[in-house]
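Predict the 3D structure for this chain.
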Amino acid sequence: MRDQPDNDFDIVIAGGGFAGSITALILTNLNFRVCVIEKGQHPRFAIGESSTPVADLLLRELASKYNLPWLHDFSRYGSWQASHPEVVCGIKRGFSFFKHHPGKDFLTDAYHKNELLVAASTNDSQSDTNWLRADFDAFIAHKVTEAGIAYFDQTEIIEAKWDGAWELKSNYPHGSEVIHASFLIDATGSGALADKLFGVKSSAGEFLTNSSAVFSHFDDVPRWTNKLKEDGISTNDFPYDPDNSALHQVLDEGWMWMLWFNDCRTSRGFALENNRFSYEDLSGEQIWNNTLEKYPALGNMLKGIALSAQPGRIIKADRLQRKLARCFGEGWVALPHTAGFIDPLFSSGIAHSLSGIEKLVRIIAQNRDNGDSLNTDLAQYEHAVFEELKLIDMLVAGCYQTMDCFELFNAWSMLYFAATIAHEQNLMKKQMQGYMLCANDQNIQDMVHDGYADLQQLISNKVPSDEEIRQFTDRIRKRIKPYNIAGLLDPSLKNMYRHTAAQI
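Done. Predicted structure below.
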């Protein structure tokens, strides 16, 4: 789009993914003159992601508060299918975990000792969704242009000058633009633009989690439940079909995600822990094949599966963790996924982005004519985003440290589900201005930090005994009790939780 009468805007948003586009639509409805600059072009490949009840609650709140009624339909699988079945997604009934051991086929027992299923909905219609980001991002970007918002794709910001307002020099395939704006929002999803324009660096040094990934999309992959049935493993007491969920195959050195979409595509990837294993000298294909060979149940099921046309290859991502040194400055701010990222283990990315949008658009609207208070509020926003990242980091790091002992992994992961329940309950009470996962709640912080200290003592330089694991589990059970409305760690439920999330 190059036919704007002028290039003078209140706000420029760099990045036309779903977060940048939703932000643009909201700010336009708040009577700001907005421009979106997208370096690429839709539809484009992005790894599949899954929503959560927290993400759905936030999506509904944004839709209602900012007059985007069509956005509400994407907050549940049933309404998504009724309104926009052409935008590809998949059913996500909850989180499923299956523990594998090197060189052995998958085994479990009647007590589901190597299985954990945590339902987030009571039926398919009310379930969360796996997003095929290429489709969803393209749909939201179309809504941006449909709303008459200036949208420049295949355009790269190459230089920025600040003198009380921005002068942005941008290049596109057949020319260049100079765009002026009072404020810039970085929604690019990486730290590269902040480094180039503002000299703000990203690093991973302060994080506990240290993981990398190899991933792609595949066509016509066999279903895990079929593999279980072929091996004589009963699924009769499962609360849902685990293929209709965020399916985690837990390994000693990491985990594999499996996300199904309605068009028979799947998002598959290994997220692997770097502290105990080195992957730097291996290609993505070598890591993929070596890991499948190590775990026979996965290797036999996925042998010879076809890559989807997009991206058509195995992608290798080195250390996933990153955080900007700061996520705002004079005349600019970064959305959460640009500010930092931990790991996809608990599908926190969509919810974190929407939580940041909710906070940020409110701040911008409240400080329309007051730059001094804007910076004060943006400093509070930055504190929130960084505290949220620290809490997610600790929760994820504890999981990686216990993946070789599923009983410990099971117990530790309940801290995440308890924090999620607390956040959902706050959102249901319309407490929209809180931190992601209640990261500003001292009781939640104490619950996680004390649990992490106990975990470090337990696993330091030894293999925990059965009695030590039982005692640790009891302590976790007591710590989550104030939030535990789902029977988490109730032995009678045998790791099968039928509904843990808020009704929305």
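The radius of gyration is 23 Å.
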